[in-house]
Design brief:
Strand content: under 5%
Shape: globular
Length: 124
């Protein structure tokens, strides 16, 4: 089990973090929105407690939704996700969709309510 000559392996640092690490456009709205979510995570989140019924947590979901889809769409998705997190709401794994279907348009924000409402529901 020695090193093989000529087989140098690049060591990549492992990035562990609470929030989504994927690539996203750093527009002013997205940076503002994700910064507000991060500020909440660093300050108020500890006082609220670990009571989220979903994976990822609501703040992690909000961060990813805003980073992927912008402040307007991601903000609505996050708001509706938090509203589903009550005692009689949904639970389980609820991921942010990678892309949004064409029916999710900025001038009809109530449609974002349907995203993640039921496990296994398609977002198309």
């Amino acid at each position: 089990m020695g090193d093989h000559p000529g087989h140098a392996h690049a060591v990549r640092p492992i990035r562990h973090g609470r929030n989504w690490q994927g690539p996203w456009r750093k527009t002013p709205g997205r940076v503002l929105g994700t910064s507000l979510v991060r500020l909440y995570q660093l300050t108020l989140s500890g006082f609220v407690g670990n009571s989220c019924r979903h994976l990822p947590t609501c703040s992690e979901y909000a961060y990813e939704a805003i980073a992927r889809h912008g402040l307007w769409a991601g903000g609505w998705m996050a708001l509706f996700r938090v509203s589903r997190c009550g005692p009689f709401g949904t639970h389980g794994i609820d991921r942010v969709p990678e892309t949004l279907a064409q029916r999710y348009v900025w001038f009809m924000p109530w449609r974002y309510w349907r995203i993640g409402r039921k496990r296994g529901e398609s977002n198309d």
